[in-house]
Design brief:
The complex is a heterodimer of chains A (158) and B (298). Chain A is an alpha+beta fold and 158 residues long. Chain A has 5 helices and 5 strands. Chain A folds into 2 domains: 75 residues, Roll (Ubiquitin-like (UB roll)); 79 residues, Orthogonal Bundle (DNA polymerase, domain 1), CATH 1.10.150.120. Chain B has 3 domains: 47 residues, Uridine Diphospho-n-acetylenolpyruvylglucosamine Reductase, domain 2, CATH 3.30.43; 111 residues, Uridine Diphospho-n-acetylenolpyruvylglucosamine Reductase, domain 3 (2-Layer Sandwich), CATH 3.30.465; 109 residues, 2-Layer Sandwich (Enolase-like, domain 1), CATH 3.30.390. The chains are: A alpha+beta (158), B alpha+beta (298).
Chain lengths: 158, 298
């Protein structure tokens, strides 16, 4: 089935089998391997991407369903590999990752969350992260990094 | 690829959906938000020959005030959209209060109100809310349109009163009444996990301060969401009191429900949770109804 979609601002056309998951389409067809697949049944959150601005699990969407949609993946946060996105910068600074497997999904969860909640409380951050599993950090530094990211982004906007 | 092959159809109208359902019968499966169906397809527990994607169907995603002052929610309204809707918050505060407990934000961005109800997971929050509020669903099928009350809709373990060839199109929630109050509570291992027990309570007090109606719906306590009738009987006609809600909690936990044990909670623990949560939910609901709670028996 023919689909046309935009990923990180670039339009792509592809012929896909209906059963191809969006996560596999991104990784295999477009070679955007920043989107990770962990559980592939909607529990771990590693494959989170933005679909028309909303965070979704790309393992629970078929690629054909993204026809006509605007997608954003972790590769789009720092295009060109130059300056880091403030959320990425905060995660580096506050040690918000260890192995990094869950990080792309967490970053993509946080992009819309911080846009809607520029100054979240710790409880709000923990609730926002509840759909993303991390097996290394114990979450403390992820929460700290998220709040640091929020403060960096507030400064940028002023 | 994880899921087995299937034929994919993406109709634009309800008529086309009904036509496809008639054509393919039980070989077809309807895809709404897909947040429960796609995982089971990824495990190949479900291998539908035909997948009918409802996401392009027009007219199923509106949120409207009903003629009687209640609310009409299209079946394809995303849970996240309902969660953010000012109209939902105004008309059906119990639904707005409950939606944040439904899985995680990423799931609610895709998951739909109608898909959740048609899936009829006994651990899901929304069926309990529908039962507590006395909501109904509109259904279209080969013989036209019909309405099914929530009490008749959930028939068993993942089972509903939907018949072959039928499509759930709309959820209809009754208007708020004077002297009414509701509350939702659940206990889960982690935020967003399936609850070990959850309670949606809706009470109505008459002007004299007596309980006129008490609907107490529980989830994760059996093969389907259910109303705790014996708990209600402790309250109706009585003046709400801490003793009465305590009795209602005990009735719910010990008489109304027949829970199963699983890796998260034993039968005894589920009974305990139901007892405590029913008491707390009723206390909050009566308070919101503006009912003054007495101390002892009425």
């Amino acid at each position: 089935m023919e689909i046309t979609l935009t990923v990180n601002g670039v339009e792509h056309r592809a012929d896909v089998e209906p059963r191809l998951l969006l996560s596999d389409f991104l990784r295999h067809a477009l070679e955007l391997t920043g989107t990770h697949v962990g559980c592939e049944h909607g529990v771990c959150g590693a494959c989170t991407v933005l679909m028309d601005g909303a965070a979704v699990r790309s393992c629970l969407v078929f690629a054909v369903q993204a026809d006509g949609c605007e997608l954003a993946t972790v590769e789009g946060l720092a295009p060109g590999g130059g300056e880091l996105h403030p959320i990425q910068d905060a995660f580096r600074e506050a040690h918000g990752l260890q192995c990094g497997f869950c990080t792309p999904g967490i970053l993509m969860t946080l992009v819309p969350f911080l846009r809607e909640n520029p100054d979240p409380s710790e409880a709000e951050v923990r609730a926002a992260l509840s759909g993303n599993l991390c097996r290394c950090t114990g979450y403390q530094n992820i929460v700290a990094a998220t709040r640091l990211a929020a403060s960096k982004m507030r400064e940028v906007e002023v | 690829m994880k899921p087995a092959p299937f034929e994919y159809r993406r109709p634009d109208t309800v008529e086309e959906v009904l036509h496809l359902l008639a054509e393919y019968g039980d070989e077809a499966k309807l895809l709404a938000g897909g947040q429960s169906l796609i995982p089971t397809m990824n495990f190949r527990l479900a291998q539908p020959a035909v997948l009918i994607d409802l996401n392009a169907v027009k007219g199923l995603d509106s949120v409207d005030e009903a003629d009687d002052g209640g609310l009409r929610l299209g079946a394809m309204v995303r849970q996240a959209a309902a969660e953010r809707s000012a109209l939902v918050a105004e008309k059906v505060p119990l639904l707005a209060e409950t939606l944040p407990f439904v899985a995680h934000a990423q799931i609610r961005n895709r998951g739909t109100i109608g898909g959740n109800l048609a899936h009829a997971d006994p651990r899901s929050e929304l069926p309990a809310v529908m039962l507590a509020l006395g909501a109904s669903v509109r259904v279209r099928g080969p013989d036209g349109e019909r309405s099914i009350g929530a009490g008749d809709f959930f028939t068993g373990f993942f089972g509903t009163a939907l018949e072959e060839g039928e499509l759930l199109t709309e959820v209809v929630l009754p208007p708020a009444v004077e002297g009414g109050g509701q509350a939702f509570l659940e206990v889960s291992r982690r935020l967003g996990d399936y609850a070990m027990v959850g309670v949606a309570a809706s009470v109505v007090c008459d002007p004299a301060g007596r309980c006129h109606r008490a609907s107490i719906a529980l989830l994760s306590v059996g093969s389907r969401p259910m109303l705790a009738e014996q708990a209600s009987a402790c309250l109706v006609g009585e003046r709400p009191s801490s003793a009465a809600v305590l009795a209602a909690g005990h009735a719910a936990g010990n008489k109304d429900i027949d829970p199963q044990a699983d890796m998260h909670a034993s039968v005894a623990y589920r009974r305990h949770l139901a007892t405590v949560l029913v008491r707390r939910a009723l206390t909050a609901a009566f308070e919101r109804a503006g009912c003054v709670m007495g101390e002892g028996a009425s």
